[in-house]
Amino acid sequence: MDDTAPAEGQPQILNLWPTQFMRVRLPGAEMANPALSAVIMERNAEIDDMTVDYTADNLFTMDHPAVQWLRQCCDRAVLDYAAAAGIDYQLEWTLQGWGNVNFRGDYHNLHNHPHSWLSGTYYVNVPDQTDAETYRSDLNPASISFFDPRPQANMNAIRGDGQVDPEHRILPVGGDLLLWPAFLHHLVHPNMAEVPRISVSFNVVLKWKADYIPR
Q1: What is the pLDDT of residues 149-159, one digit of tens each?
Q2: For residue range 120-164, what is the model confidence (pLDDT) as tens digits?
Q3: How far is residue 55 from each of residues 52, 81, 165, measured CA to CA in Å?
Q4: Suppose 101 and one of 44, 78, 87, 170 were both cysteines; which one would form an S-S bond, judging by CB atoms 3.0 to 4.6 Å apart?
Q5: Can you name the residues that pair with 111 across neighbouring β-strands?
């Protein structure tokens, strides 16, 4: 609660209910990505429904140098995200991670990630879509879209109003890490290239403490 009254004649402008979103290019990705790609492709051949049955196995429990590098980077990203959000107390969490291999035509429908605080994706390989045999820009190939969590918030927006566009779309590149609130609905557009798009998605699951309860 904010009980601070503005000075007389001075409008108080608040940006209420923002949705914090983070994007960072990880240093060292060029060296780690080939090893991560090999690990994920091998697991994809061994594990049925690796992408959809994401709670069955946690990638981050692997004792592999590239996987542990990524886990440490994700933990660092969570700390940076929390600091930017103004969280000034200690958090404890676990990371639940899984690989995604999208061959030509593969995509992910609209969804969010329940039972988590944050969700994220690290991009190991994003193939050049313009080299695809079939290239349709209207499919937004290899992009990921995030949607305004407030239903119909843009219905009465006018030109120049920040509420106009309910979609935030990104074309990531290898080495990008994205982090967002787990409630945020998003979808992954199809990969149209012959080379697979490879990524690691993860959830940040808090170890619950009474300190988290808002006062």
Answers
A1: 998 888 988 99
A2: 999 999 999 887 676 666 778 999 999 999 988 889 889 998 888
A3: 9, 24, 33
A4: 44
A5: 186
Please check the confidence at residue 182 and state whether its pLDDT lies above 70.
yes
Token match 């061994």: residue? 46
pLDDT of residue 2: 66
Pure H helices in the chain: 29-46, 65-84
Map out the domains of the chain with their CATH numbers: 22-212 (2.60.120.620)
Give helix 29-46 / helix 65-84 axis angle, nearest 10°: 110
Largest CA-CA distance found in the chain, in angstroms, rounded:
67
Long-range contacts of 133-136 (CB under 8 A, 24+ apart): 133/194, 134/192, 135/192, 136/192
